[in-house]
Design a protein that fits this description.
By secondary structure, the protein is an alpha+beta fold. The chain folds into two domains: 3-102, 4'-phosphopantetheinyl transferase domain (Ribosomal Protein L22, Chain A, Alpha-Beta Complex); 110-212, 4'-phosphopantetheinyl transferase domain (Ribosomal Protein L22, Chain A, Alpha-Beta Complex), CATH 3.90.470. It is 28% helix and 30% strand. Bound molecules: coenzyme A. Coenzyme A (COA) binds next to α2, β3 and α5.
Length: 213
């Protein structure tokens, strides 16, 4: 397993860690290990890599604790007091982002891989009518759909600390300039949202932040 980190200037120096799937040298809390081992074997590798990544991200962000990072009932990783963080894993790599909680800002990360299959059939489930019309007018490309899909998942992860319920894809709109607008069915909010995405070859990484206001 290799574990590397970087600081994201666009998010006030938040730490982004990537950990390749594999045998960790050390670093998991026993309760995290027990949790991972309670899951089917095919899931364990990604769960372990995700925990290694979030623990490293938190540590680089200034966390000095040693407690476990376990999922809450919704599946969101429970962050230590004073920190925000998020996890994603896909195709052999886990990524995690963490930072101190500043002004209640929360972070979400998502990663997808282009792959060799065009899954554009998901468009009507992922896009609001306006988004669908724009995407079709722009040529219905799978990479551009994946960008919207992944950013919405990053937004979901950033927003669930504030809106602790399932948020449908139709409750979020990503504009061509990257602007994010929520249409929260429960009337929650309002929230300030911002997202940044980048491609690294076939891998897409999306980071979103959410704050109240
Ligand atoms: C939860 C969800 C976003 C996870 O995305 P995914 O592509 O399936 O999987 P990823 O590898 O990217 O992310 C998995 C991680 O998500 C995190 N996660 C799971 N549920 C979560 C929640 N409710 N809130 C925040 N993070 C959550 C966990 O950390 C999980 O990793 P772990 O089990 O190792 O801790 C997705 O399954 C989902 O339910 N999406 C529907 C909601 C949505 O995206 N709405 C968009 C409109 S805002």
């Amino acid at each position: 397993m290799t574990v590397v980190f970087e600081r994201l200037d666009e998010f006030g120096g938040a730490v982004l860690v990537r950990a390749t799937f594999g045998q960790p040298e050390s670093g998991l809390h026993p309760a995290e290990l027990a949790w991972a081992e309670s899951k089917p074997p095919r899931r364990r590798t990604e769960l372990v890599a995700g925990r290694i990544a979030i623990r490293r991200a938190l540590t680089e962000a200034g966390w000095t604790g040693d407690g476990p990072v376990l999922p809450n009932p919704q599946g969101r990783p429970s962050m230590p007091d004073g920190f925000t963080g998020s996890i994603t894993h896909k195709d052999g790599v886990a990524l995690a982002i963490a930072s101190p909680l500043m002004g209640g800002r929360t972070l979400g990360v998502d990663s997808e891989v282009l792959g060799d299959r065009d899954r554009s059939a998901i468009a009507p489930k992922v896009l609001r009518p306006d988004e669908l019309a724009r995407w079709q007018a722009d040529g219905s490309s799978w990479p551009s759909l994946l960008e919207i899909f992944s950013m919405k998942e990053a937004v979901y992860k950033a927003l669930t600390p504030h809106v602790p319920r399932y948020i449908g894809f139709d409750e979020c709109e990503i504009a061509p300039d990257g602007g994010i607008t929520m249409f929260l069915a429960g009337g929650e909010g309002s929230f300030q949202l911002r997202g940044v995405s980048r491609w690294e070859g076939e891998r897409l990484i999306c980071v979103a932040e959410a704050s109240v206001g």
